[in-house]
Structures are given as C-alpha cells and as structure tokens.
C-alpha cells in the first residue's frame, strides 16, 4: 500500500530541541533522545467515514512530532497502518450494500487526499492489515505454541496473564478494563475465556465474511491488536520511540499491543513513550462514527475552506486536550491565516530569529502548538503596529511556520 506525497520541509538555521512529551504509561513527561533515526508508529484509520476532524487532529499531533525531530537533524522512520478489514468496515459495507474491499480502497484514497492537502508528512511504510496477514499468522502461532494463547471454538485468544507487564500502559483497574473492552470491540461476556478482557488474535472464518489461509490456525482473519504489532515489529523493532494514536486507543488497543509484543520478544517496553491525542467534540458530544456527528476534511475543502486554515484550527488546541469543533473555531483560524499571510507578504518586519527559537521551545515542550501560534501572533502584531527594517524577516517567518507547524503561507 502506498502513502501520499511529502511536502517539502524548509531547512532552518540552527537546530531544534529534544522533545519532552507526556507519556501515558508513566503519567508524566519524558524527554526523548532518539538516535540518528527516530522511530514512531501511529495507528491508522479503519477506512470508512474518513477523514473527520478527530482523525485530522490526531495525525496533526504526530506530524508535529516528526517536524520537531527533523528540526533536530534526525531522520524519522514513521510507520502507519490501515485496518482495511475489521467488523466496523464490514458492517458499514453491508449497510450500504457495497463491497467491503472497494469501500476500504475508496476511503483510504480519500484519506490520502486529505493528508496531502493538510501537509501531513507521510509514513515511510503505510501497511494495510490485509497485506500484513502473512506476517501476522506466524506471530499468533508462536504465541499459541508458547502457551500465551488458547483456542475457543476455533478462535484464538491471547492470555493477558502471560505478560507480567500487562496493565502498565493504561494503569486501569479490572472493572474499567472490562467496561472499555465491551465498548471498544472486545467480547468480555463470552463464556469460556480465561480472562474477560483477553483479546482475539485470530477469528475463525465466519459465513459471508472475508477470510484467509491461516496455516495451522485455519481460515480466518486477524484480530485488531496483533495487526499493529506485526507491522511495528517488522518495520521498527522493539523499543521504538513513540507509539501514538487517539486517547481512545489507550485501552484496549495499545495495552494489548504492548503485551503481545512483550511476550513475543521477551523485551520491555514495546515503546519508550505512549502518546495520545485528545478527542474532538461536535455539539457537545465526542465526534464519532457511531453517532454520525462528523465534520469531514473533504467536505470543508469542497466548501472552499483553505486546508491551511483547517490546520491552524487544529493547532490552536493542545494535542492532549479534548475540545469542540465550532464554526467560530474555523472563523478564528481563517482570520489568523489572513493576518499571517499579509504579514509575510510585506517587504520587511521585526527580526525573526527569536521567534524561530520561541516556536522551537514551545513545540519541544509537549508539542505546545497554541504557545507557538501565540508567538507568531506577537511577531505579526509588532509588524502591524510599527513595521520593521529586517527585509529577511518575513521569509524567515514563512519558512519556520511551514517547517515547524506545517502551514504554508
């Protein structure tokens, strides 16, 4: 599966700061110090109803992570998956009377278009669950053969008790885990499971549903969590720098994925930091596919909204915050974009070197994009109030905003 084209990232003078970011597992900040190549895995979409603003907010956060690392003169090895076979996708295809594979292809193509328009840097490896199946099957067989998985009516489940570190990503108690498992694709009430939250690794073939040859597992399809584990281990290995996604992935997805990987490799932890973006609401409720209260990037673009304004609307909120999309949020972003573009089109302005450092400092401090935007606002305000004499300053500001915030002026 191919990703989308990369926009050019301007080179800036000097060098960025190492990233200090909130780690869900420890509940506090960690300063990441990758080697020459920083490694990040971000969970991708299940391709139906793409791309809504909640998606965009999540991928914007991890785009900033990449930009901070690139500014430190590191390379970035970024991997993202596409869950192109799963129950929600099959249910939507059945509801709409369309082929599930065609729906997945259509929505993935739309996602690529939106990511390109928003200037999100693409992953080096963009892998679909279906194409990952040949690498998933041996992992499930290994877990089963080592006693970390068991069969239940043809399905294969992972035993969470096989990982001594289980629970150390989410730090939830058993009752909370059981509740979230039921809400987020698990089956805690199924009789015969060793632990109610044990997740499925391999689902035996169901009539009328797609299935693949699973070798000794029989025909079926992979569970959700093992998909990401197989892709991450294949392309990044253990101990990569950041595992990222929305906060709704903390449990069960990232908890289970970590346990799968840790049992498979005998190493801990799977990732040095677990980083999660907040949820976006609309009309007082979390934006979600099940509720249908979605604002789509593609619809905004069709209505003539500049993608740079959409990106500024996202950047105006701290990535970890839960916030609400409103018409006013977009109007504010459009006004800000207009002021910034007017400023960099003028022939001169106040010196901008200090501004570049302010943006760097803000982003290195747990991706504080609102503080970075405020710093640019101050420079623009000074220029509007008293002009300036530095003829190179507007160009410096334009390049910094592009390189570090992903906004083309």
UniProtKB/TrEMBL annotation:
Names of required cofactors: Zn(2+)
Binding site for Zn(2+): 43, 228, 253
Binding site for L-cysteinyl-5'-AMP: 43-46, 58, 81-83, 224, 246-248, 280
BP-aspect Gene Ontology terms: cysteinyl-tRNA aminoacylation; mycothiol biosynthetic process
Domain tRNA synthetases class I catalytic: start-end pairs: 39-333
Record GO terms (molecular function): ATP binding; cysteine-glucosaminylinositol ligase activity; cysteine-tRNA ligase activity; zinc ion binding
EC id: 6.3.1.13
Pfam family, one: tRNA-synt_1e
Listed InterPro entries: Cys-tRNA/MSH_ligase, Mycothiol_ligase_MshC, Rossmann-like_a/b/a_fold, tRNA-synt_1_cat_dom
Enzyme class, spelled out: ligase
Region Disordered, annotated ranges: 1-28
PANTHER family membership: CYSTEINE--TRNA LIGASE, CYTOPLASMIC, CYSTEINYL-TRNA SYNTHETASE
NCBIfam families according to UniProt: mycothiol_MshC
Protein name (record): L-cysteine:1D-myo-inositol 2-amino-2-deoxy-alpha-D-glucopyranoside ligase
Organism of provenance: Streptomyces calvus
Chain's gene name: mshC
